[in-house]
Amino acid sequence: MSILHDLSATIEARKEADPDSSWTAKLLAKGPEKCAEKFGEEAVEAIIEAVKGDRASLTAEAADVLYHLLVMLAARNVALDDVLNELERRQGVSGIAEKAARPKG
Ligand SMILES: N=c1c2ncn([C@@H]3O[C@H](COP(=O)(O)OP(=O)(O)OP(=O)(O)O)[C@@H](O)[C@H]3O)c2ncn1[C@@H]1O[C@H](COP(=O)(O)O)[C@@H](O)[C@H]1O
């Protein structure tokens, strides 16, 4: 299992947890709209660091973005594997497009 799968499983378990026991449980208890809002805030913070060009800060903000993306997906019951499968499907599609675009002969 990847770290993303591990984190996703932890976040899923926090849906049943007491909101006072964990940041994730508290955020999930506030509902999908709040989770989406936090994801947006973290994405903006990552954009700011990307524009500034501070690689260490961008790395930290990117980790926040991934965590908050997983929380937002969990809040709407979208499985991480469904997102990963969609990426794999697109790889296949773009592979076909690349082949079709190659000159013949
Ligand atoms: N990866 C993370 C992670 N990244 C960021 N955060 C939290 O996300 C919050 C976002 O930061 P902000 O500055 O926006 O938070 P804030 O200002 O306190 O919040 P607001 O008042 O703005 O709503 C911080 O409080 C961080 O602790 C995370 N909290 C948890 N995790 C992972 O989730 C797992 C479960 O954590 P618990 O929530 O503690 O159960 C942990 O093992 C970690 O692996």
From TrEMBL:
CDD domains registered for this protein in UniProt: NTP-PPase_HisIE_like (cd11534)
GO cellular component, one term: cytoplasm
Subcellular localization: Cytoplasm
Chemical reaction(s) catalysed: 1-(5-phospho-beta-D-ribosyl)-ATP + H2O = 1-(5-phospho-beta-D-ribosyl)-5'-AMP + diphosphate + H(+)
Keywords from the named record: Amino-acid biosynthesis, ATP-binding, Cytoplasm, Histidine biosynthesis, Hydrolase, Nucleotide-binding
InterPro entries in the cross-refs: HisE, PRib-ATP_PPHydrolase-like
Any GO BP annotation: L-histidine biosynthetic process
GO molecular function terms listed in the Swiss-Prot or TrEMBL record: ATP binding; phosphoribosyl-ATP diphosphatase activity
Gene3D superfamilies: MazG-like (1.10.287.1080)
Pfam families linked: PRA-PH
Pathway: Amino-acid biosynthesis; L-histidine biosynthesis; L-histidine from 5-phospho-alpha-D-ribose 1-diphosphate: step 2/9
SUPFAM superfamilies: all-alpha NTP pyrophosphatases
EC number annotated for this UniProt entry: 3.6.1.31
Main location: cytoplasm
HAMAP family assigned to the protein according to its UniProt record, in alphabetical order: HisE (MF_01020)
Entries under PANTHER family matching the protein: HISTIDINE BIOSYNTHESIS BIFUNCTIONAL PROTEIN, HISTIDINE BIOSYNTHESIS BIFUNCTIONAL PROTEIN HISIE
Family: Belongs to the PRA-PH family.
Entry protein name: Phosphoribosyl-ATP pyrophosphatase
Native source species: Ruegeria profundi
